[in-house]
C-alpha cells in the first residue's frame, strides 16, 4: 500500500524532523543552544523547547541555513523572556558562522493547546517541530490530516497581510532590506500556494521547490510565477525586481483564490 509524502498509512501527518537528522556541522550549534537555554530559562519558566526548519530535517546548508527554535513557556512570554531569547540568539549567531541567523519563537503552553490554535500553532508544534527538551506538547494534540480546515487556519490570512507587506516594500530603501523582505514574501507565497492545493494532493512537503511544482500541477497558468518565488526564496538577492511583481501579481491572485477555495482564517485576539 502506498501513501503520500509526509503522511503515515492512515493519511495523518508524520513529524518531519528528528534530532538524529542534525548533520555534523550543526551538532555543536544545537549543543550550545541547549546550554544557553539552561542559562537563561529555568524550569519554572521553560516548559519545553523544539527545533524546526532545515536543521532537524537534515537539509541545512552551512553558511546558508538559519537555526529556528520554538520555546513553549509555562506562561505567556514577557519582555524579560524576549530579552533572554535575544541574548541567546546573539550569542549563537556570533559564535557559529555555519548558521545564517538564529530565530527563537516564544509561545505560551496554553496558546499551543488552545482550541483557537488547534489547527495552526498546535499543528505546527505537533507536526513540524522536533522536541529538544522538556515534555513534548505534541502528545497532547490530535493527529492531523491535510484538510481544507488545516489549510484555512494555517494560511488563510494572506489577504489581511497584503497591505502591510506592500507598505514594507515601499518603505524598504536599502538592498539588504529588500532582500530580506523578498525572501520572506517569497517563502510565504510558496507555502501558501502549496497549502492551497495540499488537500487535493493529500500530502506534505516543506521543500520549496517541490511545493512550487505541486502547486503548478493544479494551477499551470501560475506555475512559472510560483517557481520564480521558490527561486527567490532561496537566493533573494539574485532577483531584485521580483518583490514588486509578486506583491502586485501573484500575491493578490493567491489571496483571492485562497478565500474562494478554503475561506478566511479565523481572526486571533
Automatic annotation (TrEMBL):
Residues 48-89 form the Polymerase nucleotidyl transferase domain. InterPro entries: NT_sf, Polymerase_NTP_transf_dom. One of its GO terms (molecular function) is nucleotidyltransferase activity. This is Polymerase nucleotidyl transferase domain-containing protein. It comes from Streptomyces tubercidicus.
